[in-house]
Design goal:
The protein has 201 residues and is α/β, with parallel strands linked by helices. It has 6 helices and 6 strands; from the N terminus they run βαββαβαβαβαα. The structure holds guanosine-5'-triphosphate (GTP). Guanosine-5'-triphosphate is lined by residues 9, 11-17, 29-31, 33, 57-58, 120-121, 123-124, 150-152.
Length: 201
C-alpha cells in the first residue's frame, strides 16, 4: 500500500525535523530550505506500507503559499499539521489548515478525515505559550488525532505520530495514487546530508 502524506505548518515549527527524525532517527539541528518528497516503508499488520512524505519550507510569499497549499491538499491522503508549543500563531494556522483541508477534499466520512495535529518542541516547556489542553481540545472538536512531541529529544514519539496517521487512514478512505508531476523535487535522503557536510551526529 502506498500513501501520500504532507507535513504542513508555518515557518520553523519543526516540519523537517520531524520528517528527518522519522527517516533517520536523528535530529541534525538545522535543515535548510529543502523541498522533498521522501519515501519510507514499514510493516503494519504484516503488510508493507510505503509513505511518500512531502516536506516543504513555509513560504513568506502568501500567493505562493496559497497555490502550494491547494496542490498539497489535493495530493495528500493524510496530513500532519505541525505547530510549535512556543508559537501561538503557528497553532492558529493549524486550526485554519484543518478547515481548508476539510472543505477542499471530499471524504466519505468527514469525521474520519486523516489529520494528525502535532505540537512540537515539547522540550522547550519553559517557553510554552500553547497549553497541551488547547491542542487536545482542538483535536477533539475537529475529530483529529493529537500528539505533543519533541523532534529534538525523542524518536519514538515521532514514530507514533506517523503510525497514528496510518492507523487513522486504515479506517478511512485511501484514494488511489494519481500521477504526481512533482518528480523534479523528489530527492533522496543523501541530499539532506550532502548539503550539511559539517554536521556531526
Ligand atoms: N528545541 C527544539 N528545537 C526544534 C525542535 N524541532 C525543530 N527544532 C528547531 O527549530 C528550527 C526549525 O526546524 P525545521 O525542522 O527546519 O522547521 P520547519 O518547520 O521545517 O521550517 P521551514 O522549513 O522554515 O518551514 C531548527 O533550528 C530546529 O533545530 C524541537 O523539537 N525542539
Amino acid at each position: 500500500m502506498d500513501v501520500n502524506i504532507v507535513v504542513m505548518g508555518t515557518e520553523s515549527v519543526g516540519k523537517s525535523a520531524l520528517t528527518v527524525r522519522l527517516l533517520t532517527r536523528r535530529f541534525i539541528g538545522e535543515y535548510g530550505d529543502i523541498e522533498s518528497i521522501y519515501s519510507h516503508s514499514f510493516m503494519v499488520d504484516g503488510r508493507e506500507i510505503t509513505l511518500n512524505i512531502w516536506d516543504s519550507p513555509y513560504s513568506e510569499n502568501s500567493s505562493v503559499e496559497t497555490s502550494m497549499l491547494e496542490k498539497k491538499v489535493q495530493w495528500a491522503d493524510g496530513y500532519i499539521l505541525v505547530y510549535s508549543i512556543c508559537d501561538r500563531a503557528s497553532f492558529n494556522t493549524v486550526s485554519r489548515l484543518i478547515q481548508t483541508i476539510k472543505s477542499t477534499k471530499d471524504y466519505l466520512n468527514a469525521e474520519k478525515v486523516p489529520i494528525v495535529i502535532v505540537g512540537n518542541k515539547r522540550d522547550l516547556h519553559h517557553r510554552r505559550t500553547v497549553q497541551s489542553e488547547e491542542g487536545r481540545l482542538l483535536a477533539l472538536n475537529t475529530d483529529c488525532h493529537f500528539y505533543e512531541v519533541s523532534a529534538a529529544e525523542n524518536y519514538h514519539s515521532v514514530l507514533m505520530v506517523f503510525h497514528g496517521l496510518v492507523d487513522r487512514m486504515k479506517d478511512g478512505k485511501l484514494t488511489a495514487k494519481r500521477p504526481l508531476g512533482f518528480r523534479g523535487i523528489v530527492k533522496s535522503m543523501s541530499a539532506v546530508f550532502a548539503r550539511r557536510r559539517t554536521d556531526s551526529f
